[in-house]
Amino acid sequence: MTALPHAKYEAAGLANIRPLGWLLEFLERQCAGLTGHPEASGYPLDHTFWDDPSKLPDVSDAAMTWWPYEQTAYWVDGAIKAGFLAGDEAVHGKALTQIEGAIATAASDGFIGPDLFRDAHRWPYVMFFRAVLAEYQIT
Q1: What is d(CA 113, CA 119) in angstroms, rounded to the nearest whole number?
Q2: Lower Cβ count inside 10 Å, N or C end of the chain?
Q3: pTM of the prediction?
């Protein structure tokens, strides 16, 4: 990414960052804690959704089916970044499974996620594709 002529800073990209000191220690603690063990935190993080849209939660109000995707997308985004930056391949891999699974189960027209998201509930995609872009920067 090229900086604008008047800019003083430009993005470094995740692949160019190597945390040290307290920041590395913080990331390692995150990976050893709930970021690395989402199954211990309860619903919806103890379930996976992005890797298989058939796992859509069974809720009585169809308008509420989006939020488990949103919450797990926040986790995927954080875990991709924390796992990579901390050098924790298990955490990074756990989050990467969600991204790769979502891509592998995309509809024939390229749509990712459950069909009920085609016309609504786009916010979970914002978080999820932040993680996809982070993985793209890493690789």
Answers
A1: 12
A2: N
A3: 0.86
